[in-house]
Write a structure and sequence with these properties.
β1, α9 and β2 form a beta-alpha-beta unit. Helix content is 64%, strand content 10%. The longest helix is centred in the middle third of the chain and has 70 residues. α6 runs antiparallel to α7. The chain is elongated, with a radius of gyration of 32 Å. The chain is an alpha+beta fold.
């Protein structure tokens, strides 16, 4: 099936470029008609190489078209137009290898356009030259627009990843700095307690040192896991995220209602990042290090992350930091809404609702 899908475009172009050859011209000899048909088929089948060798395939379609024109008359340059789009779509401003540089691609596109228009103009077929030149130009422009959008999307993804890594690096610095500061203070207190013979106070300080060390190790392990992640994630990766949180010392449960695979990529990635940030906040700030994650996939995607630890502070005590703002921005970017705060029992809860784009 995969081969048939890949063969559909080359075969279709071959047929179009074959049946359209010499349209409107006087009858040709059987020999020239047969040769023109074979050239049209060859031009179309050259598209099989469009992914592996786009420039070679482009050159082959142009040569095939010109030869077809000389033998049997003008034909629709559908194969050339497809390859102009493919080459234009691969245009990049940065990071191109020398053989695929922007200058090389621009030259190839211009050469293909001239290869279609010039022979028609020389043959006195001005109308066909204008029409087919416009056809190739539109195909090339469409490819360049797709490349431009792809480049912008890639740049935005890179910026988001860099911002995420910078945030995690700052949190890592804060975690290590705070933890090591506490350990240093308690170590000094233990030393002074031992010096005056207060062994009970020294033991208490050592316990505090142990607790601070475990807390630092737990948070560092979690943050290092985040740094090792790939760029894109979806809801299918949510069980792995929860597993990493458990290995980092968080007692977390996951409840799923619906098919995680039935969620669009944009909503899935936003939901994944919201859960990730919520678990990070529980790990860093919740006293009990316990959480519940509930996901419901229906007409919309609903998320709820609840801190099951001991209630601390009044229900109205809500402080919005960078993590909560980031979660809210993730939800808004996916067209949804997010609310966070303490429940009536004093537990911290994050609730998000994201659209699935269904009519």
């Amino acid at each position: 099936m995969d081969f048939l899908r890949k063969a559909l475009l080359p075969v279709g172009c071959a047929l179009l470029q074959t049946v359209s050859v010499g349209t409107g011209l006087p009858d040709r000899s059987p020999g020239s008609a047969a040769v023109a048909a074979l050239l049209g088929i060859a031009s179309g089948l050259a598209l099989f190489a469009r992914a592996r060798a786009p420039f070679i395939a482009l050159a082959a379609t142009v040569v095939g078209y010109v030869a077809q024109l000389l033998v049997g008359g003008p034909a629709l340059p559908v194969a050339v137009s497809v390859m102009v789009f493919v080459v234009g779509r691969g245009y990049t401003i940065e990071g191109s290898s020398p053989e695929h540089s922007p200058t090389w691609r621009a030259g190839a596109l211009l050469g293909a356009l001239l290869g279609v228009v010039a022979p028609l103009q020389v043959a006195g077929l001005g109308f066909e030259a204008a029409a087919y030149g416009l056809m190739c130009s539109v195909s090339g422009a469409a490819g360049l627009l797709v490349a431009l959008k792809s480049g912008r999307d890639q740049q935005r993804r890179t910026e988001l990843v860099m911002a995420e890594r910078l945030r995690i690096a700052r949190e890592l610095h804060d975690v290590v700095g705070h933890g090591m500061g506490a350990i240093t203070v308690q170590a000094g207190a233990a030393r002074m307690a031992v010096a005056v013979g207060a062994l009970d106070d020294a033991t208490a300080s050592l316990r505090d040192i142990e607790a601070a060390g475990r807390s630092v190790l737990r948070e560092v392990r979690w943050l290092v896991t985040l740094l090792r992640e790939e760029e894109h994630h979806g809801l299918r990766d949510l069980p792995d995220l929860v597993g990493n949180a458990r290995r980092s010392g968080l007692d977390v449960t996951l409840e799923v209602d619906g098919d995680l695979g039935d969620v669009p990529a944009a909503a899935g990635e936003a939901a994944y990042r919201i859960v990730q940030e919520a678990l990070t906040n529980v790990l860093r700030h919740a006293p009990g290090k316990e959480a519940e994650v509930a996901v419901r996939v229906a007409d919309t995607l609903e998320l709820e992350i609840l801190d099951r630890g001991e209630a601390v502070g009044p229900a109205s005590d809500v402080e919005e930091g960078n993590g909560l703002r980031g979660m809210r921005e993730r939800a808004v970017s996916a067209g949804g809404v997010l609310s966070a705060g303490r429940t009536s029992t004093g537990r911290w809860a994050v609730h998000a609702e994201l659209p699935l784009g269904r009519s």
